[in-house]
Amino acid sequence: MAESAARTRATPAAERTPGAVAESVRAYRLVVGMWMRSTMAYRASFVMTALGNLAATALDFVTIVLMFSHIHALGGFTLPEIALLYGTASTSFGLADLLAGSLDRLGERVRDGTFDTLLLRPAPVLAQVAADRFALRRLGRVTQGVLVLGWSLPRVDVHWTVVNVALLPVTLLAGAAIFCAVFVAGGAFQFWAGDAAQVQNSVTYGGATLLQYPPGIFSRELLRGVTFVVPLAFVNWLPCLRMLGRPDPLGLPGWVDFAGVPVALLCCALAGVVWRAGVRSYRSTGS
Amino acid sequence: MGGFYAAVVVRGFRRFATYRVATAAGVFTNTVFGLIISYSYIALWDQRPHLGGYTEAQALTYVWVGQGLLAAMAQMGGGFETEMMERINSGAIAVDLYRPADLQGWWLAADLGRAAFQLLGRGVVPIACGALVFDLALPASPLVWLLFAAAVALGTVVSFAIRFLVGLSAFWLLDGAGVVQMTWIVGLFFSGMLLPLNAFPGALGDIAQALPWSAMLQVPADVLLQRRHGADALLALAFEAGWAAVLLAAGRLLQGVATRRVVVHGG
Amino acid sequence: MTQSGEPMIAVEDVEKVFDVRRKAAGRLRRERHRVRAVDGLSFTVPRGEMVGYIGPNGAGKSTTIKMLTGILTPSGGRVLVAGIDPSRDRARLSRRIGVVFGQRTTLWWDLPLRDSYQLVRRMYRIEDARYARNLAACVELLDLGPLLDVPVRQLSLGQRMRGDIAAALLHDPEVLYLDEPTIGLDVVSKAKVRGFLRTVNAERGTTVLLTTHDLTDIETLCSRVMVIDHGRLMYDGGLDGLHAAGDSERTLVVDFARELPPVEVPGARWVRSEGPRQWLAFPAGDSAAPLVAALAARHPLVDLSVREPAIEDVIARMYGAA
Fold first, then answer.
1. From what superkingdom does this record's organism come (chain A) (predicted)?
2. C226, C311 contact by CB (below 8 A)
3. For residues C50 and C222, is the Cβ–Cβ distance under 8 A?
């Protein structure tokens, strides 16, 4: 019986083919489309909350500007340099939040039993959950991040070589992918401990806050943690330090500044493994 | 009637006391945020040692008090307002209106019970963690702690009164998620959770200090740090009580308008 | 593909064990308990049959349905639905089955009913002609015409249930699972739902497995009933057999024109009186007609109704008999 159970758990090859990715994207778009139409049922409310979201998330940056009304440099970084960190962190996090932020409410779906209905559809579950409650108003954070980034770029002392120019968009996307992986792993975690959903906020929102500041102001233990355990340092710190021509406080070899993409891929792969384990656990325990 | 509301308070406390894993997770998150903000304040006070009249130890105390009060003041959700909005949207609020208890009083009692639990369950441990890692400027005098407790209690009422207004907005707006989120962020900013209001420059600082959100962190923290002591501390409490009264009255007024709407439209 | 001779649903010695953590009295640590929600269950359902699946709350009904849909993986035994192992090939199976959970809607709350159906069309990749045909059939039989452009949040419970059933049938499933499809519905909606299910079963040959607390659902729809309790199959056969096995009774509630002493009629047993109203119990397998005729011959009647035995009662009596 153990043997047959093991065979039962094996994933059929069809689900792993590249077709599965296309299927996921298709399902994601279908569900997102439904949520956007649902939002538009309350159009006035949407416009107001989207603008409000933009203005409100901007207060984060206003706080930093207020700090700079008293000082010229924080941890040795000028305001435009901090704005570069802030802009890259906010844009990456905002993108991930827009694409997969709903995963942090997976526990609710598990508790009220509606997760079951997602398992009944002929579409990849992860795509359905990521698209669940898709909220276009989250574009506010992305917009705000891009604006701050745009303000900082002409003001920072970066030698815009081909490498640095290419590094910026790659960093934004790799950073978004790392945060997406955190959302997926955090969502999967809720299959086991739905009540502990808050813990992932310390990595997502906490991480986004952390990355707004220069790494040098934090303790080395914290820096090691966000480099080697949850590799948030690759979201923007390491590539931005390279662009700004500053040493990194952990003294890592120079090539790690370009490791964002492989690190992001690794994170996504690990998150995928955790997700599968989470779904499997749900299907054997039923919540 | 007083006994009834006391029972609602106790029920509110108990209800949140059952979420033990969630409480532990919240404490963890508060502690992580406390660490991140502490380091940024150390860098800031390193440049300006007496910014806003705080020493570095006082600034760090401020950070951890802020993390300790965050849940009690429901600054990032967890309060009653989302539930109330859901009840308004689903029409279940009509049932609440026919209860013998007053709508505002009932929710206030339940929210105070919640806040009392959050203060103990989510407040004590982060402050203790902060005190372990950093040198904090916590007072020794029991009188100061007593004043602080009063300031926190009044701050909770102000926090409730604001969120009650937000909750009522669901009578007019069908999708409350955006409004709630905006309230959080405005509240975080003007309570001084992101940066102490005394470090806000010029007129912005004065305005922020005069707004009701300051009752949710800045005022209690200043009482605890003895930046406001003696008669000034009593003045601080009076300031909070004044806002509480004004906002509760506004809530009552709006509740009346909303109730008439329910009666007319049948929910 | 299933050959016509093979059963549509085959459950063989299936079990589902859950680890439940419970706080033991007087101990700080929570103790682990193993709960057998489904315990050595075996049955088959041939193609085109309509089966009632009943049992008390917590008996293992929902767990069984979840294993038959692939939501849950069995702890042991074998499940085959339409020749597919549900836990292994959930996505492939999902195209061949339809599921309706009475308590949870799959419709989109803020959007018109039609939009939910469009999503089903795209997700299941239903060809246009087939979609149009199926939708038209559902709309006609379930009276959905005036509801298609109404946001789901404005529908009544009965309307929403009809909408949900249609959504589960647009892709022509060979098997339909219904978990409490009539719960909370008014009499008219219940009748509509039952009529529709009968038509679908007769015309399309859809195999139907339905759980319910309403014995009338079973009586009007199912030729076969399975009773489950504590995860085991307690009874499998016709409804008459169930009544006989459980020796259950229906109740005739009669409103006489005036207050009477307890009436005596052959084939019925007086239960109680309340003013002019009296309650008479009679064997569930018997027809109420001769009884009513006998009563009407003796006393003027104002009103009468027949109460079905509750499923819990039937099962309780079954245990008493066994």
1. Bacteria
2. no
3. yes
- Top-level class of domain C249-321: alpha beta
Phi, psi (rounded to 5 degrees) for B162: -65, -45
Instruction: List, edge to edge, every strand of the sheet that includes C30-45.
Output: C30-45, C9-23, C76-81
Per-residue pLDDT tens digits for B78-108: 788 888 888 888 778 877 777 777 889 999 9
- Cβ–Cβ gap C123/A123 under 8 Å: yes
Q: Which of A28, A32, A38, A119 to mutate to test the interface with C (most CBs of C within 10 A)?
A: A119
Rg (C-alpha) for chain A, rounded Å, is 20
Q: What is the ipTM of this complex?
A: 0.87
pTM: 0.85
Count of alpha carbons within 13 angstroms of residue A165, beta-carbon side: 3
**Cα separations in angstroms, A103 against A149, A184, A194, A207, C154:** 27, 6, 12, 17, 28
Residues in chain A within 8 Å Cβ distance of C89: 12
| Burial environment of residue B20 by CB neighbours within 10 A (0 to 12, 13 to 18, 19 or more) | exposed
Rounded distance, CA C124 to CA C134, Å?
A: 13
CB–CB of C75 and A284 under 8 A? yes
Q: How far is CA A162 from CA A158, A244, A263, in A?
A: 12, 14, 22
Q: Is the pLDDT confidence value at B123 over 50? A: yes
Closest Cα of chain C to A278: distance in Å? 13
Min distance A101 CA to chain C CA atoms (Å): 20
State whether B194 and A63 contact (CB < 8 Å). Answer: yes
What does the pLDDT look like over A207-257, one tens digit per residue? 999 999 999 999 999 999 999 999 999 999 999 999 999 988 888 888 888
Range of the domain at B37: 2-265
**Residue range C47-71+86-237, CATH number:** 3.40.50.300
Query: What are the sequence ranges of the domains in chain A?
Result: 10-285
Question: Which of A187-191, B55-59, B252-256, C187-191 comes out lowest in average pLDDT?
Answer: C187-191
**Chain C CA closest to residue A30:** C119
Query: Which pair of structure tokens corresponds to residue C53?
Result: 């699946």
Q: With an 8 Å Cβ cutoff, are C124 and A122 in contact?
A: yes
Over residues B37-64, the mean pLDDT reads 95
Q: Does B200 touch chain A (CB under 8 A)?
A: yes
C-alpha torsion A142→A144→A145→A150, nearest 10: 120
Beta-carbon separation of C71 and A283 below 8 A: yes
User: How many C-beta atoms lie closer than 10 Å to residue A19's C-beta?
Assistant: 10
Are C177 and C98 contacting, i.e. CB atoms less than 8 angstroms apart?
yes
User: What are the start-end ranges of the H helices in C55-150?
Assistant: 61-69, 90-94, 113-123, 128-142
Provide, as residue numbers in chain A, all residues whose Cβ is less than 8 Å from the Cβ of C76: 1, 5
Instruction: Determine whether the interchain pair A1/C76 forms a contact, defined as Cβ–Cβ distance below 8 Å.
Output: yes
Domain ranges of chain C: 47-71+86-237, 249-321
